[in-house]
Specification:
Mean pLDDT: 74
Low-confidence stretches: 4-38, 277-303, 310-316
CATH superfamily of one domain: P-loop containing nucleotide triphosphate hydrolases
Strand order of the largest sheet: 8-7-6-1-5-4-2-3-11
Shape: globular
Structural class: alpha/beta
Number of helices: 12
CATH class of one domain: Alpha Beta
Length: 316
């Protein structure tokens, strides 16, 4: 009777996915074969468009962000729309609460507020660098770097989910004006990707003529479709083929899959996973922003940092 473990190992060896980044390959070479196939696609410098079939894909988006932060030093700057940055899911899938402290969030509730947050991002980055270098100096030394190509002080990633949402929904703008404002937002994001030499991860609410410009400006494209065996991600040099677990079975599309995937990645890079505290549902508008009437609204988003939508610092 053939050995079950050998049979499973041979099957997974045939079905291993490919990866697009060399640094990911180095990690994969050291990974346990049972978890090697669980690696997520790497985010390359430039704008990456993630299209998710069937829903908003919040856990998929957040998993890509957390995976990138596990592999790179530095903070992520997240310009949110439609509640993609809620702590409800982030705290469920994050292998360590310390990762969440590296995510700085700004929220735009109108087209002008969203564009204002994008416009003000360099100011937020400079402020973050000043604060982190001051804290590191006061501590005497920083943590050892896990990636020689990045700094713990400079941005590692920019995230702009539903980048079309506010421009599409704002009925105070004509169609021409909405397209122009969205084009300026995309141009700034492209400038930041080039200027900081980092990935910019974006999604769009719909695929139609209005969002063709998002696809045109993207340097990379990831497609995610929901299948009966789990989420299947396809991109340049990457394809999810299997979701192996200890007994050779396959994961379904559940939070348990994303939690285990990120915990495996954390173990690979030497980050000790911690058990997140139980989370409670949070409203879609968590954070600080300015309403259309000019009223400042605030809510606690700990452990996320609302970086640059505080009073007087954005939210136009």
């Amino acid at each position: 009777m053939p050995d079950r473990s050998t049979s499973t190992s041979n099957r997974l060896a045939v079905d291993q996915p490919t990866r697009s980044a060399d640094r990911n390959q180095n990690l994969a070479n050291q990974a346990d074969p049972a978890t090697d196939g669980m690696l997520l696609p790497s985010l390359e410098d430039g704008i990456t468009l993630l299209d998710v079939d069937g829903d908003r894909g919040v856990p998929i988006l957040q998993s890509l962000v957390l995976d990138h932060l596990l592999l790179h030093d530095g903070p992520a700057f997240w310009i949110d729309a439609n509640g993609h940055a809620t702590t409800t899911t982030l705290t469920q899938i994050a292998p360590s609460q310390r990762l969440l402290n590296r995510i700085h969030v700004a929220r735009g509730f109108t087209a002008y507020q969203h564009y204002g947050a994008v416009y003000d991002l360099p100011t937020a980055v400079n402020k973050s660098i000043q604060m982190s270098t001051t804290d590191a100096g006061a501590a005497g030394r920083g943590e050892p770097s896990r990636d020689e190509d990045t700094s713990p002080h400079t941005p590692a990633l920019i995230v702009a989910p539903a980048v079309d949402a506010q421009y599409r929904a704002d009925d105070t703008l004509s169609e021409t004006h909405a397209k122009t404002l969205q084009a300026r937002t995309l141009a700034r994001l492209a400038t930041y990707a080039d200027g900081y030499d980092i990935p910019v991860l974006v999604t769009r609410n719909e695929r139609n003529e209005f969002t063709e410009s998002v696809a045109r400006v993207a340097d990379h494209h990831l497609e995610c479709e929901q299948t009966r065996m789990g989420p299947r991600v396809v991109g340049e040099g990457f394809e999810t083929l299997v979701y192996p677990v200890d007994d050779g079975a396959y994961y379904q599309t559940t939070f348990a899959y994303w939690r285990q995937l990120l915990a495996a990645r954390a173990t690979q890079v030497g980050v000790e996973p911690t058990t997140p505290a139980p989370s409670t549902p949070t409203p879609e508008g968590v954070g600080t922003g300015v309403t259309a009437d000019g009223e400042t609204v605030a809510a606690t988003a700990d452990p996320l940092l609302d970086a640059w939508t505080a009073t007087g610092a954005g939210g136009r």
